[in-house]
Amino acid sequence: MTLSWIQYHILLELTQHARRRYSQLRPADVEGNLFMYHLNGLMKENLVEKTDHAYRLSAKGLQFAGTLSLKTGKTRQQPKILTAIIAKNREGHYLFSRWHRQPNIDLVSFPHGMLHYGEKLADMAARELAEKAGLQAALMHRGEVYIRGVHGKVIDRHMLVHLFEAQQVEPEPQGRQRPEVSEPFWAPLDSLQPGQFVPGFYEIAALVQDQPKGNIFADLLVEI
User: Fold this and answer.
1) 3-state secondary structure labels for all residues of the chain
2) What are the tens digits of pLDDT across the range 98-116?
3) Per-domain boundaries in the chain
4) pTM
């Protein structure tokens, strides 16, 4: 949804106050019919609701307010939360994903994906292993890695990656895989070059190889 300045004004007011009446929300220089048009648009999007002759943010609106900057009146880009799965076979090869879509097309990484709203980390890790590789396993949390990818002087991506180690890997029915998204394969780390990896994931793989046991914590700044 593209917001008008009037809608931003309404959302900012309701971010700073639990409830506001019509007269408190409408800017003095905005005609009533025009104001109601934009207010109704927010209510149709379920961002604002009316109660007891006043307006307030809905549950969806409260979520939106968490991304809204009071300084600029614009939404802020938020770091992404991911889980990545470390799996190793008897030959000492790691499980990787080769990506078939942007922004990582033709690059490789550990199988990973973004956390769904309200989802538990362990549940997400199990889902990603099934979707990306058609496997299931006992999963152990190994740590967290922050990745900030820099393109020139601009932060292009900012991610918090929760690492899970797969133990007792078992095959799972293949129907949940999505080959249009990624392709799983096993390979030793030294068979791949750093430039073949999704930014930050070669560094994660090197940390995993250097620290086969114990927790892994790192803050990475990588060039894209």
Assistant:
1) CCCCHHHHHHHHHHHHCCCECHHHHCCCCCCHHHHHHHHHHHHHCCCEEEECCEEEECHHHHHHHCCECCCCCCECCCCEEEEEEECECCCCCEEEEEECCCCCCCCEECCEEECCCCCCHHHHHHHHHHHHHCEEEEEEEEEEEEEEEEECCEEEEEEEEEEEEEEEEEECCHHHCCCCCEEEEEECHHHCCHHHECCCHHHHHHHHHHCCCCCEEEEEEEEC
2) 999 888 899 999 999 998 8
3) 5-65, 80-223
4) 0.72
